[in-house]
Amino acid sequence: MPHAQLPWDTLFVHADIATMAHGRYNIIKDGAIGVSNGKIQWIGPYEKLQTDRTIAHEVINCKDQWILPGFVDCHTHLIWAGSRSNEFEMRLSGARYEQIAKQGGGIAATVKAVRDASADRLFTIASQRISHFLSRGTTCVEIKSGYGLDLENELKMLAVADRLNQQFPLHICPTFLGAHALPPEYKGRTDDYVDLIINTMLPGIKHQGIASAVDVFCESIAFSLAQTKRLFTAATDMGLPVKLHAEQLSDSGGAALAAQFNALSCDHLEYLSLDGVKAMAHAGVTAVLLPGAYYMLKQTRIPPVRDLIRLDVPMALATDLNPGTSPVYDMAAVMNMGCVLFGLTCEQALAGATINGAKALGLGNCKGSLETGKDADFVVWDIDSPADLSYQMGICCVNKVVITGKIAYNT
Ligand code: NIG
Ligand code: FE
Questions:
Q1: Best mutation site among 77, 100, 102, 223 for ligand 1 pocket (most ligand atoms within 8 Å of CB)
Q2: Phi and psi for 285 in degrees, rounded to 5?
Q3: What is the CATH number of the domain that holds 19?
Q4: What's the 297 CA to ligand 2 centre distance in angstroms?
Q5: Domain range for residue 113?
Q6: What are residue 16's phi and psi, to 5 degrees?
Q7: Which of 83, 99, 147, 180 for a ligand 1 pocket mutation test, highest count of atoms within 8 Å of Cβ?
Q8: Which pLDDT score is estimated for 50?
């Protein structure tokens, strides 16, 4: 095998590696990874390396450790102010999420807190969350707006996401979610708010080049199928890819609509119908499962995982980190929930947290698996087997996090 551009910047040796290429472990025992210019230049068994000359500036010995792709968390609402632990307590006493939302709590409560917070304050809070992510092995994260709900505050959130992207080594994908909820000033006028998004907010966001996708919450407590269609038409006309919060609390037919627009992903999907699965399979849409929200809302109906597997729909897992339904920071915990609550295998859970998360962001060709030419984003773990990540709870076994070839976190 050729050793392109010798010497490499860094060579990681003696690790057991699960590459996750094509969504499988693809284990390399006693492997090596050569990294230069932020990319994987070489990956394979250590014994296949020509070690009789200097082939890297730095060699890192990872004996008794595993190297796995960094987690790609493809669905988060990471930027917010305030807390909604009071709603958690209300739900524990029997209140329902929809009920709390209708009474002006829920997303609306966070919208008020975000509108009241300065960009600097949001950046400070969000920085702490990003640091938590990094220390738990996440190397790429999607962040949605959706707690501003007017152009000024949506732009404020997206600018904070951009600043996080500049100041942290993690790769951040910003998503515009103006259609997350109805802002209070538009009460009873949902179509007028949809007009505002289409005529004012989307052009402003497009003009600033500050979002890489557009998301909608399609649900009885949020936006209808017809409104979602109008929003998707406007977004795709502007060349922005779409994705959808679909079939979380009811079957609204959102997944089939998203498939018509070649959405990157449909997310949640507890109430997804077989027709919806077929439409997603046909259009190549990734299913993003969010077991943290399912768990926190004590839902009882799980997404149609068997049908998704049978029809070969890639399944990603994400934290859905948000103050209402999923205050969850740890992808390993999400993998555990994916296995225990949704019936995934440990291998499917790891594929969901890595390569399929990358697919959900349209980054499947450069992130999510360890293959020559891809970004050198990976984690060195103190574990005995990749299944340990899904199996254990409450322990973090990260040893090092490497992002584009550089050590971004070291224990
Ligand atoms: O993904 N479903 C809509 N959005 C979030 C919840 C946001 C919130 O409650 O603040 C979700 O679960
Ligand atoms: Fe969400």
A1: 77
A2: -90, 135
A3: 2.30.40.10
A4: 13
A5: 71-360
A6: -85, 135
A7: 180
A8: 74
Residues 317 and 245 placed together within one structural domain of the fold: yes
Ligand closest to Cα of 179 equals: 1
pLDDT score of 382 more than 80: yes
Query: Residue 254 Cα, ligand 2 centroid: separation in angstroms?
Result: 15
Handedness of CA 361, 69, 42, 55 (dihedral sign): positive
Residue 54 has pLDDT above 80, yes or no: no
Ligand (nearest to CA of 114): 1
1 assigned to some structural domain: no
Average pLDDT of every residue of the chain:
96
Residue 2 falls within a domain, yes or no?
A: no
Residue closest to 247 by CA, chosen among 186, 188, 308? 308
pLDDT digits (tens, 9 = 90+) for 8-49: 999 999 999 999 999 999 999 999 999 999 999 999 999 999
Tell me: do 224 and 259 sit in the same domain: yes
Q: What number does the ligand 1 atom closest to the CA of 248 have?
A: 2
Q: Which residues contact 137 (CB under 8 A, 6 or more apart)?
A: 70, 71, 331, 332, 379, 381, 396, 398, 401
The reply to whether 387 and 241 lie within a common domain is no
Question: Has residue 1 got a pLDDT over 60?
Answer: no
* Mutate-to-test residue for ligand 1 from 74, 97, 322, 326, highest number of ligand atoms within 8 A of CB: 322
Alpha helix locations (H) across 80-197? Answer: 85-92, 97-102, 107-116, 119-135, 151-167, 190-196
The pLDDT of 330-353, averaged and rounded, is 98
Does 44 lie in the same domain as 133? no
Tell me how far the alpha carbon of residue 301 lies from the centroid of ligand 2, in angstroms. 17
Q: Are residues 253 and 383 in the same domain?
A: no
Q: What pLDDT shows up at residue 19?
A: 98
Judge if 242 and 280 occupy the same domain. yes
- Measured in angstroms, how far is the CA atom of residue 52 from the centroid of ligand 1? 55
pLDDT at 236: 98
At 305-317, the pLDDT tens digits run 999 999 999 999 9
The answer to whether residues 184 and 316 belong to one domain is yes
